[in-house]
Every structure is written in structure tokens, then in C-alpha cells.
Amino acid sequence: MTTDASGSRPLRVSSHDPHRTAHDRHHRLDTAGGPGHGPVPGRAEHVDRERRAAQIRTGLDLSAAGQTWTVNAYVLVFGALLLPGGRAGDVYGLRRVFLLGIGLFALSSLGAALAPTTSVLIACRAVQGIGAALLAPTALALVLTLYPDSRRRGTALGVWARSPVPAERRACC
């Protein structure tokens, strides 16, 4: 029998149980994480993210503006090209555009890791955004195409949503 965090109350598994409390639902959500988001973010993760951002800024000798553009270059390009990336998959083929997106994202990640200057790093992050904008919609379309049966499609979408795809899940460094 599974109990709540304090170990005092049993957690009910049925979603139709009228005696299930809000605490039970939140505990299960905290344990399972949100769909595609990993564990529910808390204060410790925020502090850790800020600490890592400070280490990256110091290690790369970035100004505050340089660090901001490192993040924003990816987010802006990804957001602007997401719909055209999906259309490219429709026109040129899902598999071809998916593989192009993976290739661009991988090569630009290598370029970003080896970037000698802030400008090169920002440019590589923008190319990562292009790759991600090609990768994200075609990955979902491929899952929907490859699993026409509704039951298997639901499972496949669940796996896809929980996958650690940096292109669509995390826009941070």
C-alpha cells in the first residue's frame, strides 16, 4: 500500500474515488511530475538553476547582456520558426525535416560548446533554435503518423511527452 509523504494516509489509486483528497492528487502529481516537465519545479531547483547560470556566466566570461542573448537567441528563433518548421515537414517530408532538425541541433550544440566568443555562442544558440523548430513539430507528427491505433497512440504520446527533448522542454542554457 502506498502512503502519502508523511506515511500516515493511504493514497488511493482510482481516479474515480470520491474520498480522494486534494493532497492525494498533488502528492501523486509531485511524484510523477507534470506531463513532459519532470518533477514539479520548486525552490531548490530555482536556486540550483540560478547557481548554474552564475557559473556559466563566470566560466564563459559573459556579461549579463551576453547571457540574456544566449538564452533569448534560442527562444526567439525557436518561437518564430515553429509553425514554418511544421509546414516544412508537411511539404518536404516528416522524416527528412526531422533528421535535418536533429543534425542542425547537434552541430550547433557542438559549436556552442566550442564557441571561442560570445558572438559565436549566440549565433550557435540561434541555429539551435532553427533545429529545434524543425525537430519539435515533426517529432509529434511522426508519433501521430506511426501510431494510428488510438490506444497505442495514447501510450506513444505519453512517452513522447515525457521524453527529455531539450528543444521543446527547456529553453534555458
TrEMBL record:
Major facilitator superfamily (MFS) profile domain ranges (all copies): 1-173
Topology in membrane: Multi-pass membrane protein
Membrane-spanning ranges: 69-85, 97-115, 127-147
UniProt-listed PROSITE patterns: MFS
Keywords: Antibiotic resistance, Cell membrane, Membrane, Transmembrane, Transmembrane helix, Transport
Subcellular location: Cell membrane
One protein family per Pfam: MFS_1
InterPro entries reported in the protein's UniProt record: MFS, MFS_dom, MFS_trans_sf
Protein name: MFS transporter
Organism: Streptomyces machairae
